Fold this protein.
Amino acid sequence: MNLDDEWADFGDTAEQQAPPPGPPSKPPDGPKKPGRKKRKKKAQEPPPELVFPTVADFVADFLAPTVRRNLRRPTVTWCPAWWRHPEAVTRLTALWRAWEHLRHDPALGMSVWWLHHADPHLRVLMDKDAGPLSACTPEGHRAYAHGPLPVETPDAALWLSPAFSAAPPAADGSGA
């Protein structure tokens, strides 16, 4: 395992590289669920063209020049190799996708983006004590500030409850 790369936890070998920053690929269509009615497809317009084609472009060309922080403060940090941290990639991708969507709302879109997306994600990303970049400094990358969250296998019977199941409730309201 390569201790300099958090992606090593995800089974990467020397021959495999971490996925490039950008939107995740669409999962393949699975089997159709029985009992669901087909909806008539509306004539769909093509999605609007992206301003930034990848999350890396978004971070380099918008986020980094726009978000300016005193990185010498003892409470914040940043990693120039942010793309080497899976949580950072996921959060920054969420920021990018939300920005691309909300930019179309001329009234409140950017305010919503800052207040409900950028501010909370940046607070977590740049948290020097507990954030995913907390082992790093603005001068360089260091991996593994913290270990993965501990996980125990739950009792399989727990998932039989309708509260924890993705199955739709029974039509008679019995929950079975």
In short: The CA atoms of residues 53 and 61 lie 11 Å apart. The two ends are 46 Å apart (CA to CA). Residues 12-19 have pLDDT under 50 and may be disordered.
